[in-house]
Design goal:
Length: about 350
């Protein structure tokens, strides 16, 4: 029997994958301390869509596809544009609310009659799929993420309407600013200093919209409405090893990343995919040799994704002329080189290894 601690997306997907392999597993879900309905946008990669399709959870979701990504920096030259067609996929990613994903996956778990319980029982392997490991290396970014939902009026600014399915990543001196498409609105994930994030989260709507407009520019039109503002502290946490005695770590229990490029949950779902592959033919799922295979399989993808995300979070900070010039050259070079754009897009979609 395999115990999965955590009923979030990664834990539920792992349970469903193990069920497909006819492996006995149960999910331990701790009762929430308090119920809070908060807006939490997430971006799923095409690879994550393939995983969700495999476990039968995709059809119940209503995501917004990302067909193009426009990358730029505030106050300086340089841009890069990525397109799904160039990467050979129907969409670069998909945007939806985290709560909708959790509910859809829990419904699938119950449909498959996978036990969900509040207490652990005897098992041959414990998979940690939520929370943060106490022995993880932790580094607090000097940023919080300000999350919000905004509406834009392109006509009011005299611009052409932004193409449907476009996501925007804009690097500002204080942190990356992402606009993710949703029906009739955008999800905003804006990294900045903690004090400024708290102030803007509580500021009058007109002030927030004005500062967002100044940071982002007019490409999406004029921002006219904001809702569901919240601040999230940003921390890099990485566990030294993703296995222990009869234990494995996936998702946030193995690593928690900065939200730039939207890699955290997608990396966690790839953790679940590879662990399920390793356990598929294992007579004893908690055997050290079996777990060592899982750790080896995930090493390259996890390490590379952590490094790329951390570089994007730190390397694009600052307003110095030299830094802006170097960033502009890099973005322009990426934009003018199709093989580089295709490689970068597919690396962000599939990780270090391809999925079927």
């Amino acid at each position: 029997m395999i115990e999965i601690r955590g009923a979030g997306p990664v834990g539920c997907v792992l349970a469903l994958l193990l069920s497909l392999h006819r492996k006995r597993a149960f999910v331990v879900e701790k009762p929430p301390k308090e119920k809070r309905e908060t807006f939490r946008p997430i971006a799923l990669s095409h690879a994550s869509r393939l995983i969700l399709e495999r476990v039968g959870a995709w059809h119940s979701l209503s995501p917004t596809p990302i067909e193009r990504i426009h990358v730029s920096q505030q106050g300086a030259f340089g841009r890069a544009r990525l397109a799904a067609a160039e990467a050979g996929v129907p969409a670069l990613g998909y945007v939806l609310d985290y709560g909708d994903l959790v509910q859809g996956l829990l419904s699938r778990v119950k449909d498959e009659r996978i036990p969900v319980q509040a207490q652990a029982t005897e098992s041959s392997l414990v998979v940690h799929a939520e929370g943060f490991a106490e022995d993880a290396r932790e580094e607090r970014y000097r940023q919080d993420a300000l999350v919000a939902s905004v509406a834009a009026d392109p006509a009011a600014a005299g611009t052409q309407p932004a193409a449907a399915g476009t996501a925007w990543e804009r690097f500002t001196p204080e942190g990356p600013l992402a606009l993710l498409p949703l029906p009739g609105r955008y999800a905003v994930v804006w990294a900045m200093g903690p004090e400024r994030a708290r102030a803007l989260a509580a500021a009058p709507a007109a002030r927030f919209l004005g500062e967002l407009q100044e940071a982002f520019g007019m490409r999406a039109g004029r921002f006219v409405e904001v809702a569901a503002r919240a601040c999230v502290p940003l921390t890099l946490r990485v566990r030294g090893s993703r296995v222990g005695p009869r234990a494995a770590y996936v998702g946030n229990s193995a690593q928690a990343l900065h939200p730039v490029a939207g890699q955290g949950l997608n990396l966690g779902l790839r953790d679940a995919w590879d662990l399920a592959r390793v356990l598929r033919d294992a007579a004893d799922p908690g055997e050290a040799r079996v777990l060592a295979r899982y750790a080896a399989m995930r090493r390259l993808d996890a390490a590379a994704t952590v490094r790329v995300t951390d570089f994007l979070a730190r390397g694009f900070l600052g307003a110095g002329r030299t830094r802006r010039w170097i960033r502009g050259i890099g973005l322009t070079a990426l934009d003018t080189c199709l093989p580089a754009r295709r490689f970068f897009a597919r690396r962000m979609i599939f990780g270090a290894s391809a999925l079927p």
